[in-house]
Amino acid sequence: MAAGTNIFEDKHTNNWFKACIALNFTKEGLTDFVLTELHNVQTLVGRSCGQCFIQNPIPCPTQDVCKKRKRNNCSFHNSLQPTSCQTCHKVKQNITLLHRFNGPSWANTKAERWAMDPWEIGKCYLPRDGYSSVSSVQESDFNGVVSIVLNCTHFQTCISAACLSPPPPDKQCPLENVRQIGRDVRHTADCKVTDADLQYFFLTLTTLLADPVHLLHDPLTTKARRKLSDLQNDRLSLVDLGKMLKEANKTLTHAKEAGERFSEEAERTLKEGLNTLEAKIQAGENALKTKHKLVNNELKTRHILVNNALKTRQRLENNALKTRHIVENRALKTRHRLGNNALKTRHRLEIKALKTRHRLENKALKKKHRLENKALKTRHRLENKALQTKHRLENNTLETRHRLGNRALKTRHRLENK
Ligand SMILES: [Zn+2]
Ligand SMILES: [Zn+2]
Question: What is the ipTM of this complex?
Answer without folding.
Answer: 0.97
